[in-house]
Amino acid sequence: MTALVLVHAFPLDGSMWTRQVETMRDAADAVLAPSLPGFGGTSLPREQPSLDDYADVVVAAMDAAKIQRAAIAGLSMGGYVAFALWRRHRARVARLFLADTRAEADTDEARERRYRVAELVRKGGVDAMLKTPPAWLRERSPHWDALKATIRRQPAEAVAQASIAMGHRPDSRPDLPSIDVPTAIVVGEADTLTTLEMATVMHAQIPGATLTVIPDAGHIANIEAPEAFDAALRAWLRRE
Ligand code: MLT
User: Fold this and answer.
1) Are 217 and 188 in contact (CB under 8 A)?
2) Is the CB of 10 within 6 Å of ligand 1?
3) 70-75 and 3-7: which strand pairing?
4) What are the tens digits of pLDDT across the range 219-229?
5) From 116, 141, 158, 189, which residue has the greatest number of CB atoms within 10 Å?
6) Is residue 76 lining ligand 1, measured as CB closer than 6 Å?
7) Quick check: 139 pLDDT over 60?
C-alpha cells in the first residue's frame, strides 16, 4: 500500500475530501487532504503564489507526515497542482488520479475572467461570487448549500490569489507523455467545466492511463457521486 494525498478544488479546502479521508483509510497507508495556502484556515501567502508554490506546500505536508512517495489525487485545481507536482517533485509521485481537470492552460479570455473574479472578491468579499450557483454545478444540485458554506469560510484574498495562480498555469500537455506512473482519469458525465473532451486529451497522451466517466455527476464528482468516485479511487490504488 502507499499513502494517498488528496488535493482540493477551487475555491474549497481540504474538507471537500472528508468522506474519502474515511472511506480510503483501508486502501492506503495514510490519507492526507491538505488545504492549499490561505484555504481551510492555513496562513495566507503575503505575495501572490503560483501553482508551483501550492505543489511545494503539498510536498511540505508529505514531509511533515514522513511520507516519501504518495499516490496523488487532484480534482480540478487539485489536478493542476498534481501536474506541478509531476514537473517539480516527480520522485515523490507514485500514482496520479486526475479528476474533473484538464491539461490545457487558460486562453487569454479565461485568464481575464480570473482577474475579474479576483477583483470581484477583493472588493465584495467571497459572497460576491456566490449570488448564483456556478455554471459547473448542475442546476438544483443538492450540494450547492454545503459547498457554499465551505466557500464562505475561505478568505477572499485566498480565493483571489488562487484565481490568479490558475490563470498563470502553464500548458501541461507537453508533460503528459512523460507520465510513467499508474494514472487514472475521471470525469463526471455532466461536467461542463472540465469536459469529457478534455479528459480524452489526457487519456490519449498518458501511457497506460485509464478513463472513467462517472454517471450522474458534474464537476465535483467526489461529492456528487461519492460511491462511483470511491470505486474509481480503489481500482486505481489496486492497479499493478
Ligand atoms: C476548480 O474547480 O478547481 C476550478 O473551478 C477550476 C477552474 O476554474 O479552472
Assistant:
1) yes
2) yes
3) parallel
4) 999 999 999 99
5) 158
6) yes
7) no
